[in-house]
Amino acid sequence: MPTPQRDSELVIRAAREGDEARLVELSAQLGYRSTLEQMEVRLAALLADDGHAVFVVDLPGTPLAGWVHVFRYLVPETDLRGEIGGLVVDAACRRRGVGRALMRRAEQWAIEKGCSTVSLRSNVIREGAHAFYRSLGYSVYKTQHAFRKPVGADDPVFST
Questions:
Q1: What is this structure's pTM?
Q2: 21-37 pLDDT tens trace
Q3: Which of 28, 34, 80, 139 could be a cystine partner for 38, CB 3.0 to 4.6 Å?
């Protein structure tokens, strides 16, 4: 495992067991609510999968001030790329370089995994986030609708 990066007062490290409660708190700041138990299951699966990474930033007085999830996105129609699954910085710690440092670390991980590009998705209402990503060199390359369907035993397709 690589040693944590230091960028002035912040320390970037891989997420680890025990970070789940803070991940739940931070995710809720952007409206993504989870239970501690859900986060424990999710983080354990991500940490066990070499195609995913979760990095966090520790600041003096604010352990786990933010997190980023990055993964290898491999599909038949495009070349391998890194995809940012999520980025959250504590509202009290924004504009201190935390998000920039996390994105830099995620991009570095993507390069290490053989990716030549990194992409991400950002809700259309998050205009501040859009400006942040543009400041990092990201640009909008398409717009799309996001569809979702619950599947399983209650789905009529699977009950026949």
A1: 0.87
A2: 999 999 999 889 999 99
A3: 34
